[in-house]
Specification:
- The chain is mainly α.
- The chain folds into two domains: about 150 residues, no CATH class; about 140 residues, no CATH class.
- Helices cover about 55% and strands about 5% of the residues.
- The strands form two sheets. It has a two-stranded antiparallel ribbon. It has a two-stranded antiparallel sheet with strand order 3-4.
- The longest helix has 21 residues.
- The chain starts with a helix and ends in a 16-residue tail after the last helix.
Amino acid sequence: MPTYREEVLRLGGRKPYEDAEGKQIYLNQKTAFSWQDIKIDSDGNRLESPLLERKPCFGRPERFFRGELEQGKEAINEYGNRVRTLTRCERCLVSDACAYTCDVRINSDPNVISKFTDWSDATNQQIGNAKFQGSANYRLWHNFLLAIIAHGGWSNLNDARVSANQILKKEKRDEARRANAKATRKARTLKPHVKHSITSAQRSALQNEHDRRLEVLLDLRKQRLVPRWIGNLSIESCERTATVWMARMILERLGAKATGKAIASWLVSNGLAQDGKLTSLCTSTCRTLNRVKKLEDGRAGTPIWLEFRWAA
């Protein structure tokens, strides 16, 4: 799976719709909705929107502000006249929603909007691909991409919903592959991290990520097109899943093996276990840990819970 940096540079480059192997990426040109159908907070995180699959470029400033300037290829129409074909952005049925999302997102970060303004002002008198050509234009555009990379990306619940829907389709379509993936996950062991300390800022960031992941689960359990093991989760199960994930992250950060027993012991010692009996808690924690692995597994596309990176 490509890193966020690789995605930004690809989407902001000349070949945004090719994967690492040079194969064309299929884009959904059937789903349609407007900017009025989505809800975004002031930080650029998408909170509500219709389900949108196979549209990795949606809401990505590095693609939109380049894509809207691109020109279609020349072709001969039925009357023998030379015309330009429509670009992907021009054919897109959610372009106004994408424009709205991208505008909010670049304005949510002072560094991103500053680098964007530098490029926009310097190329104001140029049109089309000329805005990206030449060493000066390239450097300014690349600085804009680097600012987006430094920001780290914006979250949205649609990604989790799409991932859940993909998992549901895959489970129905291919039970054999599901069993194979389960065997692979079982064979994988959690390797302890190099021992690190955890600062108060890192612990605060981890708590915020815990809250975000819990919000994602609470939203998914109410959706219709999700796997049964997600739809049947109670609120308490969602809370326990997020807490077990956080405990695993802390133990691995401290250099310990994050086994079910170790996590259960940590929950008891930190007053986060309703059942004080370690034996029964170990059993339920192991089941919850397997659920965490499913949420982090990208077997049907993008994982529901993306990788958490500790800040330096």
